[in-house]
């Protein structure tokens, strides 16, 4: 697919992977709208490239409805929607905290599913590509990330099932990035949050793979070759057990420094 002229919305576009993708897609001649709660960075740095922004907290359905209307008005329609906004908590699940659980599920799981439904309920014929940033943690587990892990497994389960039910005009492309050098980990647990050791990537590379994934209309996007190898090896060797042992030691170190906070 030629991305030139395509009307694209990206959530979580003010930072990290979404930011890198916003730059790549706009450079391809697409018409791009960047969505976040604080889009000032996009306006300051990319406003002169004609990139438009919408302020929206994607965990709020009323704001999502408004964002979709605004994006449609700005561009005359939406050809590609990239549901990328998401976050994690790093730490031990201890005391019950309904609000935290609700907030991460609303942002990481409910919002992409709701948005997809909104986009498709009145569109039965126009082609739509819905790309959704899941994570390598939608396929494997990592100590310290139990809530986050569960949201990404939920999203992975949704996408794999939705594929079998989807309308003919809709294509869904899940993305499974490994650890990226973005503010994600610091936001999750502070500046000393350990990044997984196995595979790490720069968001510019992840964004490049996502762009190619859109161009070739891939079934799914795995931006790291190391992770692809790990997925194959984990079926026939105990590679995951070894990874878990190392990551549990690192998590214990973090817990010693921070206490049992959650
Ligand atoms: N970094 C990694 O290692 C990694 C690995 C695999 C998957 N991922 C996934 O990749 C996606 C992007 O992560 P990232 O690494 O780029 O993180 P990031 O640098 O922290 O960026 C997160 C983006 O999401 C937006 N966001 C968060 N909550 C939001 C909300 N309620 N409403 C609207 N926007 C919201 C943030 O914008 P505002 O704060 O301005 O709203 C920001 O633009 C996430 O879904 C994450 O789970 C990340």
From TrEMBL:
GO MF terms held by the record: oxidoreductase activity
Assigned GO CC terms: membrane
Family as reported in the entry's similarity comment: Belongs to the short-chain dehydrogenases/reductases (SDR) family.
Origin: domain of life: Bacteria
Xref: Pfam families: adh_short
Gene3D superfamilies xrefs: NAD(P)-binding Rossmann-like Domain (3.40.50.720)
Keyword set includes Oxidoreductase: yes
The protein's name in its UniProt record: SDR family oxidoreductase
UniProt entry keywords in alphabetical sequence: Oxidoreductase
Annotated signal sequence range: none
UniProt KW Lipid metabolism keyword: no
């Amino acid at each position: 697919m030629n991305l030139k002229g395509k009307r694209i919305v990206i959530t979580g576009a003010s930072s990290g992977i979404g930011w890198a993708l916003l730059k790549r897609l706009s450079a391809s001649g697409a018409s791009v709208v960047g969505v976040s709660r604080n889009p000032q960075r996009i306006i300051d740095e990319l406003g002169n490239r004609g990139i438009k922004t919408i302020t929206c907290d994607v965990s709020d359905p009323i704001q999502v409805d408004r964002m979709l209307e605004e994006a449609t008005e700005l561009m005359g329609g939406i050809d590609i929607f990239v549901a990328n906004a998401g976050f994690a908590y790093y730490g031990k699940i201890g005391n019950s905290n309904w609000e935290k659980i609700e907030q991460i599920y609303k942002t990481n799981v409910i919002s992409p599913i709701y948005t997809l439904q909104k986009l498709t309920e009145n569109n039965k014929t126009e082609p739509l590509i819905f790309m959704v940033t899941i994570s390598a943690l939608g396929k494997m587990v990592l100590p310290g990330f139990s809530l986050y892990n569960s949201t990404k497994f939920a999203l992975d389960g949704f996408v794999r099932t939705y594929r079998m039910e989807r309308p003919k005009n809709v294509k869904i492309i899940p993305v499974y990035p490994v650890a990226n050098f973005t503010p994600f980990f610091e936001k999750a647990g502070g500046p000393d949050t350990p990044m997984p050791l196995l595979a790490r990537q720069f968001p510019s590379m992840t964004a490049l793979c996502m762009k190619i994934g859109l161009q070739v209309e891939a079934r799914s996007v795995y931006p790291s070759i190391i992770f692809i190898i790990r997925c194959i090896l984990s079926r026939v060797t105990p590679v995951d057990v070894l990874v878990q042992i190392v990551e549990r030691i690192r998590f214990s170190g973090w817990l010693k420094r921070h206490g049992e906070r959650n």
